[in-house]
Write a structure and sequence with these properties.
alpha/beta, Rossmann fold, 2 domains, 7-stranded mixed sheet, 5-stranded mixed sheet, 12 strands, 44% helix, globular, binds nicotinamide-adenine-dinucleotide
Length: 412
């Protein structure tokens, strides 16, 4: 996965004609932390997990990125995802660097009490290297507002009241209105932009989604509210489809109660992996990385892919899609709505001031549409696909900050 990120980085670095010295400096993570977490389960037995936090680059501000609780989490995953965060925060121009982390646990098989113990042990292990001006975690796969609230509480017990240490918190614990749906909302705005460019609109398209968690469910709801037809959804347990459009509100209720879309009664069932090649105008991968590979890219039927997930498309698949003429809106642009509202949450926390939801959504919309326009302009000027253009934009901004701070003693 790290190699894939480096591939996209180097492709854009070639366009920018970056020296090997600057490339090496920009690719090296600033800090990698690994902690062993030994806690007790509900039966009093010891559990062992590893927690990771990688701060990739802080040239443009404190490191920022999510925490993923998943058995596959390891140092390489965290490093690759932290890299992406550095370019993503630069593409939407929020004053942060990039970070990522998590724990190699499986929350589907843990009680809330066990999850709490593991989370607070993790905070004990990394508390010296996170903080409102240093590194600010947020939710990612299998983490949510409740867990962010535990992190704030645990951190504050060491350093005093510190809501700005983490974003994506519950509203009653200084979270921001609109943060929960922000990534999905951002996906909807960039989809609207790309369809406008193609002379179409959300109301004209059918959409298939892989993943129906935070990103997928909110994106689906907001797209459906604008007349888009959600024809297929697949998650880790199964898929559900309906040619005349799924009732997304009911599907969200079902998924909340059952922790999966599988079994939803008002739809037909299908094998979840088929969602990537579904007969729909738009595909939104919103689950995990490597969903679209060289094995299935040739069979993709959507003409537009909006990457809600991080790194869902391998470089080989990206090449195949490009040759097929599929428009791919890359993760570092498409799913940046979450980190954008995380910035608004952090700004509210450090100012001890609360914004109204309308203001949050307006600022998010402005940021996402502006970022899309900047990426599209770079793509047109340099005759690039949207992914390479987004990397060029992000890398250029980070390089300029690094040079101004004399981390790099060369010009670009
Ligand atoms: P989540 O835990 O809320 O949901 C994950 C979804 O993916 C679930 O529906 C799960 O069933 C599904 N899934 C897991 N494994 C799958 C598989 N093998 N096949 C099909 N579906 C599978 O996570 P999320 O926060 O929605 O994150 C989803 C993606 O979006 C991740 O790549 C994450 O890094 C990225 N992302 C999240 C945010 C955010 O604000 N939460 C922001 C930017 C990017």
């Amino acid at each position: 996965m790290l190699e894939e990120g480096h591939f996209y980085f180097n492709k854009a670095a070639d366009v920018l004609d970056l020296s090997s010295k600057i490339r090496a400096i920009l690719l090296a993570p600033n800090r990698i932390v690994k902690v062993e977490l030994v806690t007790e389960d509900d039966q009093g037995q010891l559990m062992h997990h590893f927690g990771f936090r990688v701060q990739h680059n802080s040239a443009r501000g404190p490191a920022k990125g999510g925490l993923r609780f998943h058995p596959s989490m390891d140092e390489e995953h965290a490093t690759a995802l932290a890299n992406l965060m550095t370019w993503k925060t630069a593409v939407v121009d929020v004053p942060f660097g990039g970070a990522k982390g998590g724990i190699n646990c499986d929350p589907y098989n843990m009680s809330e009490a066990e999850l709490y113990e593991v989370t607070t042990a993790f905070v004990r292990g990394i508390k010296e290297v996170i903080g409102p001006t240093m590194d600010i975690p947020a939710p990612d796969v299998n983490t949510n507002a409740k867990i962010m609230g535990w992190i704030m509480d645990a951190y504050s017990s060491y350093y005093g009241f510190s809501p700005g240490v983490v974003t994506g918190k519950p509203l009653q614990l200084f979270g921001s209105p609109g943060r929960d749906e922000a990534t999905g909302r951002g996906v909807m705005y960039v989809l609207d932009e790309v369809l406008k460019d193609q002379g179409s609109s959300i109301a004209d398209v059918t959409v298939a989604l892989q993943g129906f968690g935070n990103v997928g469910s909110h994106a689906a709801r907001l797209i459906a509210e604008r007349g888009g037809k959600i024809v297929a959804v697949g998650d880790h347990m199964g898929g559900v489809c309906r040619t005349d459009g799924l009732d997304v509100v009911k599907l969200i209720e079902w998924a909340k109660d059952h922790r999966t879309v599988a079994g939803f009664p008002d739809a037909d069932a299908f094998e979840s992996s088929e969602v990537v090649t579904w007969d729909a105008d738009v595909l939104i991968p919103a689950a995990l990385e490597d969903a679209i590979t060289r094995d299935n890219a040739g069979d993709v039927r959507a003409t537009c892919i909006v990457e809600g997930a991080n790194a869902p498309t391998t470089p080989e698949a990206d090449e195949i899609l490009h040759k097929k003429g599929v428009t791919v809106v890359p993760d570092i642009l498409a799913n940046a709505g979450g980190v954008t509202v995380s910035y608004f949450e952090w700004a509210q926390n450090i100012q001890q001031f609360r914004w109204e939801l309308d203001r949050i959504n307006q600022e998010l919309e402005k940021t996402m549409r502006r970022a899309y326009a900047a990426v599209r302009q770079t793509a047109r000027e340099k005759n690039l696909d949207l992914r390479t253009a987004a990397f060029v934009l992000g890398i250029r901004r980070v390089s300029e900050a690094a040079i101004s701070r004399r981390y790099v003693k060369e010009q670009i």
